[in-house]
Amino acid sequence: MAETENTVETTAAVLILLGPPGAGKGTQARMLEERFGLVQLSTGDLLRAAVAQGTPAGLAAKAVMEAGGLVSDEIVLAILKDRMAEPDVAKGVILDGFPRTAGQAEALDTLLADAGQKVTAAVSLEVDDEAMIARVAGRYTCASCGEGYHDAFKQPAVAGVCDKCGGTEFKRRADDTAETARARLQAYHAQTAPLIAHYRALGVLEEIDAMGSIDEIAAGLGSIVERVA
Ligand SMILES: [Zn+2]
User: Binding of Zn(2+): at which residues (predicted)?
Assistant: First the structure.
């Protein structure tokens, strides 16, 4: 047995991060990239890069998009497969925006199995919906400098005067309401439930409390990656 021979590398982590808008998924993914040398692959970036490089799958995606169609799972998977064969992702990837459905998750499992790999962990950032809604619903910003404030958690030291710039005009985004926040969370849960079930059945689902500080969440994610990768 040629034990020193560097033939099949199967230790690369394949991480799937699931989390609702506002849970800090993007921030956490960047921190995992820095700490573990993982590479975040988002579907949008993958498509753009493959189109720009003119790979066969990229050209197929381009033709579909130019015709105003939706790029098929088959094409996305072909692009993902090409990308995961590149040397810069040898330590592993964080998938962002894919899979979105149980069907895509199964197709991904097959693609990985063909390469001697598997999803090492699907991490669900668990939030308290009502607390998330309260966070979003009270947000407002200084109209002059953009400093962020919150009705419940961060009022200016002097009422009506921005701490940073002394401005007295503030603005609220029309969609930062409890209703839109609740609708976004419901849509997230509906879309994610089949994926959670899929990865739970495979025994790779990890749930972590995402209501803590950025550093606390990062520590929880880090220990998962250290354990599974
Ligand atoms: Zn200001």
Answer: 142, 145, 162, 165
The amino acid sitting at 2 is A
List the domains of the chain with CATH numbers. Answer: 13-38+91-228 (3.40.50.300)
CA of 170 to the centre of ligand 1 (A): 8
Separation CA 116–CA 10 (nearest Å): 6
Distance, in Å, from the CA atom of 67 to the CA atom of 227, rounded to the nearest integer, reads 45
Residue 229: pLDDT over 90: no
Q: Tell me how far the alpha carbon of residue 217 lies from the centroid of ligand 1, in angstroms.
A: 30
For ligand 1, the distance from its centroid to the CA atom of residue 139, given in whole angstroms, is: 14
- Each residue's pLDDT tens digit, 163-209: 999 999 999 998 888 999 999 999 999 999 999 999 999 999 999 99
The residue-averaged pLDDT of 99-118 equals 93
**Residue 133 DSSP one-character state:** H
Q: Is 141 annotated as a binding residue?
A: no
Spatial separation of the C-alpha atoms in residues 106 and 205, rounded to whole Å: 15
**Residue carrying the six token digits 């993902």:** 80
**What is the spatial distance between Cα 59 and Cα 55, in angstroms, rounded to a whole number?**
6
Q: Distance between CA atoms of 86 and 82, rounded to whole angstroms?
A: 7
